[in-house]
Amino acid sequence: MISKDKITEIFCSIDDFCAVYEPAIRKRQVTTDKKTRNRKLTMYTSEVVTIYCICFI
Known about the structure:
Elements: H1 4-28, H2 45-55
Helix pairs in contact: 1-2
């Protein structure tokens, strides 16, 4: 079993990474004239990635 402290540490590391990575990726995306949906997700990317990582540890 993983301790709550370890999960918090993993989440903080992933969240720090996503804070830098996501804006950088948005800058480099190829744009088209088509309208795209940009609605807000219900969970942050860092939360989803943390859950995914915890499941496979």
